[in-house]
Amino acid sequence: MEQERAYWLAWSQIKGIGAVSLKKIYQHFGSLQSAWDAPAIAFSEVDGLNSKIITAVQQPRDKHYPAQLIAQHLEQNPQFWTPAEALYPRLLLEIPSPPPLLHYLGEVDPTENQGIKPMIGIVGTRNPTEYGKRWTRKITQGLVSHGFGIVSGMAAGIDTVAHHTCLEAKGRTIAVLGTGVDTVYPYSNQGLYQRLTASGLLVSEYPAQTPPDRNNFPARNRIIAGLCRAVLIIEAPKRSGALITARFANDFCRDVYVLPGSLDTKQSLGCLALLNSGAHVILGIEHLLEMLGTMPCLDRIQATSPQPIPDLKPELANIYSLISQESVPIDAIVEQTGLDISKILSALSQLELMDLVIQLPGMRYQRKE
Q: What kind of fold does domain 102-292 have according to CATH?
């Protein structure tokens, strides 16, 4: 596994290869080490890679030494996950652009990473009204008391209120940073940063010592949306990073909930626009909890007894045993079997023809009831 991590790092250093392309390459080859050793012509068979990306892939890779890169990276970044690892957040794997490296600092909770503990994003303006701050506290307290975790961006304003309230309620919170996890930004959140490292979690796709850069924060917002099963926008003016998070949530098929506000308040204008576009309105704590209660409870699904495996050839039975009533990403099947992805896809096609599994969007598979 350490060797595969080195190749995720090495690929991320190649100019022109982004998170979306890297996910496609990984899905095609089954491992990034195999992709690294593949001839340039093999990349023309990868679905969705355009000519520009294929040209980037053809750059000489011998100037990058994965083993050397990983050794240097670990000196300042001892804690990170790649999408090939079991602890990489499962919900984040579903998005088209999962970060190749996700650095972290703080207390890791495997139930979050596996999607068992439901996480809700709460974001909003850096200049909230008293109304916005009051409802952020009320909503956060209500969610924590019903077992939800909170994800936000540690920005000033609504994010800060959500993190503090969650910690005060003895809840679980994750801060997604647009800097390295060793950097406090804004500096006024030094105290919050210390609390998060002690009993929460800080994550970032950027390595240690990455300073604040305005270009990093929009990309950071996709991670907030990707980690959550729903995103709440508390207050947001017409031009707001919170609206970028809402757009990502829509793209990732996450629910978006909005606190309604006044037309006379600029902090509400972005929220009202989201409501006009079809976002769910928050009419109170009980109303919000009722709507969130319609989401499938993953821990209950996982607790159900496994169904008996039909009489299948060993190679089919092995793969079928890894698929349950809950959808499973093909990445997880590759990781657990160690098989070439072409063999796995062939087996899955046979299982589909036998009416035993169904394919869902995002290369996920589920047993047919």
A: Rossmann fold (3.40.50)
